[in-house]
Amino acid sequence: MKTNIGLLLTKRAQICPHREAIVEFERNRRFTFAELNARANRVGNALLQQGIRPGDRVAVLLKNSVEFVETYFAVAKIGAVLVPINWRLVAAEIAFILEDSGTRALVYDSDFDDAVDALHAGTQGKTAVELWVRRENGDAGTPDWAQDYDTLTAASVEAEPPVGAWDDDNLFIMYTSGTTGRPKGAVHSHDGMLWAQLTSMSTSDMRDGDRWLLALPMFHVGCLSPTSLLVHRGGTGVIMRELDIGEMFRCIAQEKVTIFMAVPALLQFMLQTPEREQHDISSVRWIATGAAPVPVSLLHEYEALGIRIFQAYGLTESCGPGTLLLHEDAEAKVGSCGRPQMHTEIKIVDGDGKTIPMGSDQPGELLVGGRHMMKEYWNNPQATAETLRDGWLHTGDICTWDSEGFVTICDRMKDMIISGGENIYPAELENVLAACPEVQEAAVIGVASKKWGETPLAIIVPAAGTSPTPESLKAYCKENLAGYKVPQLYELVDTLPRNPSGKLLKPELRKQFPGPAPF
Predict the structure, then answer these.
(1) End-to-end alpha-carbon separation of the chain, Å?
(2) Run of H or E residues at 386
(3) Are residues 390 and 282 in the same domain?
(4) What pLDDT is attached to residue 467?
(5) Is residue 405 located within the same domain as residue 267?
(6) What is the distance between the alpha carbons of residues 313 and 331, in angstroms, rounded to a whole number?
(7) What integer pLDDT is reported at residue 421 of this predicted model?
């Protein structure tokens, strides 16, 4: 049987046409699977009528919405290739992605009129866009060089469009966050997304009729993949256009949400939000998180609420899945990101490419394999060759694994600090500092040192109601770290810079605190 991700919606609409597929919380718009499929067909047929063909790139600059979801499935059905764009980017950054991907059509929210007007005028860089489709969210009106989304789709038909892609054909190009240099476009196929969904469904606790809160941005794989998965599994996607923690609790209570994803920092903020006490969130069964380990104290607080925490490690390049730490292992294996998910393989290699056996304390690079890995980086053969080698995705993450196969991320290869000839992994220091009562968040970077070559600098967001000092923080570190690992330098800040998916932006910290150390 051939795979086309768009046809999953067709099939789901046949199996349970009257089940709720999508809820837009803020606008209270609700669509069954039959209605969502009909809307996707209208979009697909409209794009074909406008000259979009299999293989053409269709970019979306849309906030979380039914329009994003139906465009995704429409593009999949007709064999075009979706390019989700981070709507927090400025026009020049968007222009790079449109030009690099060779995008022919851009579907955008009127929220981004200023940026798109500049893109159309060419003042922010050249693009190959020929078809501009604007989704109205206000009263400004669509310019004469663009098509109105609602008018265009209303004039289309609900019949199934001709299928234009199968199996290993390209489904979407998702650009990485670009924390170092220009972003790279990870290319995923229909078959790859199918295996990502099968992997997630067979490793985590997914059930028929689950209601998943889609609050993270859909331009990120951590939301796009679950959006696709819900159609496959027959669950309901509850969409929040933008994340607002107070409104999120109201949404969970009203829509009886059972699952959602959140970065660890958000888990902490949720417990401190007054609205939590005002709404019944007992419907939530589990929360998936990633990007950093969850402290045991936080696990216990969520256990008291009847909520389990699943800790995941994944990448844009793996279409999401990588490893998963199940709730029952979380306390015994604190700091770990778990074992490889179903249909996923891993190995850890040293600098010579030799496999490091389980149970060794030796850190090495984590390699991930499986049918859900990306095909390539779009238009970037050098980066592809560096990352995909001998059937393995080289993650650039340094880790160890114990005798039971549990993986612990030490740090990024590029973030490792070499101080006095010793390797220091900032993530280890950050995990220790995160457990300090005076610390809400911590980041560690290396700065130049005349004496040591490099030395760790700890950047701290103080916990509410505390007043940490370099002396108190250093004393805490001395109790929990080997002497050579203890940061000698500390800076207190109000917030740490993060990208939309919650990833810490260490390049920004390096710019803010360039050093050198005074020793």
Answers:
(1) 65
(2) helix 381-387
(3) yes
(4) 92
(5) yes
(6) 17
(7) 65
Residue 252 token pair = 């969970």
Confidence at residue 3, expressed as pLDDT on a 0 to 100 scale: 97
Single out the residue of 288, 298, 248, 80 nearest to residue 172, CA to CA: 80
Side-chain half-sphere CA neighbours of 466 within 13 A:
17
**Spacing of C-alpha 344 from chain mean position:** 18
Fill in the amino acid letter for 345.
Answer: E
Q: Report residue 406 CA to chain centroid gap.
A: 22
Task: Judge if 92 and 181 occupy the same domain.
Answer: yes
pLDDT of residue 177: 63
Whole-angstrom distance, CA of residue 293 vs CA of residue 267: 12
Q: Tell me which of 344, 379, 412 is where a domain ends.
A: 412
Residue matched to tokens 């393989």: 345
Clarify whether residues 309 and 432 are in a common domain.
Answer: no
Q: Please indicate, yes or no, whether residues 289 and 172 belong to a single structural domain of this protein.
A: no
Give the residue from 505, 443, 514 showing the smallest Cα distance to 180: 505
Beta carbons of 372 and 441 less than 8 angstroms apart: no
Q: What is the pLDDT of residue 500?
A: 62
Reference 171, options 278, 259, 54, 262; nearest CA is 54
Of the candidates 359, 513, 364, 488, the one whose C-alpha atom is nearest the C-alpha of residue 425 is: 364
pLDDT of 154: 96
The amino acid present at 101, given as its one-letter code, is S
Q: Distance (Å, rounded) from C-alpha 519 to C-alpha 516?
A: 8
- Residues with Cβ within 8 Å of residue 80, at least 6 apart in sequence: 47, 52, 53, 54, 55, 56, 57, 58, 105, 164, 165
Q: Are residues 395 and 506 in the same domain?
A: no
Instruction: Return the CATH number at 459.
Output: 3.30.300.30
Q: Are 211 and 22 in contact (CB under 8 A)?
A: no
- Quick check: is 10 in a domain? no
Tell me which amino acid residue 456 is. P
Rounded average pLDDT over 72-88: 96
Do 121 and 40 lie in one domain? The reply is yes
> 339: Cβ–Cβ under 8 A, 6 or more apart, which residues?
323, 324, 325, 404, 405, 406, 407
Q: Which residues are paired to 185 by β-bridges? A: 175
Does some domain include residue 23?
A: no
The predicted model gives 97-122 an average pLDDT of: 95
Separation CA 398–CA 139 (nearest Å): 51
Reported confidence tier of residue 179, pLDDT bands at 50, 70, 90: very low
> What is the amino acid identity at position 267?
L
Spell out the alpha helix ranges (H) of 235-372.
245-255, 264-272, 296-304
Domain count, the chain: 3
Report the distance separating Cα 417 and Cα 421, nearest Å.
Answer: 9
Q: How far apart (Å, rounded) are the C-alpha atoms in residues 282 and 263?
A: 20
Instruction: Please indicate, yes or no, if residue 208 is contained in any of the structural domains.
Output: no
- Domain containing residue 306: 244-412
Is-contact 447 491, C-beta < 8 A?
A: no
Are residues 160 and 309 located together in one domain of the fold? no
